[in-house]
Specification:
mainly alpha
């Protein structure tokens, strides 16, 4: 078989079809980064609330 006989895969990017494909690795990385940001922000908010409630102040 020559390369002329081979048909292009459906998963390949075809120039000119107008639909951009997202790379799965980048999507997974974006989801993980978003989850880390949400976790860090909620932990910081919890610490701020605890601090303002006096949970970290030494009891006298």
């Amino acid at each position: 078989m020559s390369e002329v006989d081979k048909e292009p895969d459906a998963a390949e990017d075809r120039p000119g079809d107008g639909t951009p494909r997202k790379r799965p690795g980048l999507v997974i990385l974006a989801v993980v980064a978003a989850a880390l940001v949400i976790c860090c922000c909620s932990a910081a908010l919890g610490l701020i609330i605890s601090w303002s409630a006096g949970l970290f102040h030494p009891s006298a």
